[in-house]
Amino acid sequence: MRISRASTYALLATVQLSDSPAAPPIPCSQLAQLGDMPERFLLQVLRNLVNEGLLKSTRGVDGGYRLAKPLSQITMLEIVEAIDGPVQPELPQIGGLQPQSQKKLAEVLGDVAGDAKKRLASVTLAQLKPIASTAANGSKPRRSN
């Protein structure tokens, strides 16, 4: 399975947003800078998330983006499908492949897509957010040799 750059940016931006509904909106420019993402491209990604009801946007000088619901209620599947569309197998017609083989291959890829959907649906954005104590003191996890 492949996750697009747009979905990756969407995941990164949403995790950066505060989980508190009372927090002020964060401008796209700030999200882009924090995540080292191209601002114009990120703006399109954020608009899709607003259209899908995952983010709320506020216009004006103090405007920006905030989560429409808590991180714990947003799954990776929702973000990926909001940006890339439904997770489903794509099998081109292969000349020379027997119809029975083509059908079996389609079944297997359908099962793989189903498993991917279940796994993406089981991970919330809260689980992707760094632990506050590690992020606050700037320490990085140690590598084991």
Characterization of this structure:
Strand 1 and strand 2 form a beta hairpin. The radius of gyration is 19 Å and the shape is elongated. The longest helix is centred in the last third of the chain and has 23 residues. It has a two-stranded antiparallel sheet with strand order 1-2. 52% of the residues lie in helices and 6% in strands. Helix 1 packs across helix 2, helix 1 packs across helix 3 and helix 2 crosses helix 3. By secondary structure, it is mainly α. It contains seven helices and two strands; from the N terminus they run αααββαααα.
Task: Give a short overview.
By secondary structure, the chain is mainly alpha-helical. 52% of the residues lie in helices and 6% in strands.
